[in-house]
Request: fold
Amino acid sequence: MNPIVPIMPVAGAPDELIRVLNDRFRFLTDEQPPSAPETSGLFAPTCFLLRKPAAGEVLYDFIPDVPCSFPPRLVGSTVLVEANPTATAVYAFRKGVLVAGVRHYTTFGTLSISTSGIGTWTSLSGASFNGTTDSIQKVAPASQDASLAGVGTCLAGVQGVGPATISVPVSGGSGGSGGGGGDSFTVNGA
Reply:
């Protein structure tokens, strides 16, 4: 690590400010071993977009930094809608797999938002991501809705490799994924 180089007094700057900045810099740069990344527990990519999404717009596309999995039916995932669509709007969640240097995407789940703002999540088998090359992508509906805006989503999954079981509360009505008082699922890792 580089040695700490103190901030030197500057004409017109109060000495106390320079001292505080130097102390803060020392605190931030103290040599501490980096902590290991979390390898188990909840994995929940979240996206909130205030504006209307463009037709088929890719809202995120990233490679998780740890192996993770999402359950069948995307149990526990949530949605918040501020301005309901004029027709059912369908978002796609896709897995990108790198093959010979080219990323190929397949849909592993969808979110349908009704005209009353109710979200219905679907996924036949869920999906697992290896934490190194597989990417997660969220794609807006294929056609832009006249009123749909302010959509926030949170996919509920787990980190790590191997089977994991978590229980999540599932609420009915707007913003929920349907169902009763609770649900649990088991996900087999990457």
The chain has a mean pLDDT of 77. Residues 163 and 187 are 5 Å apart (CA to CA).
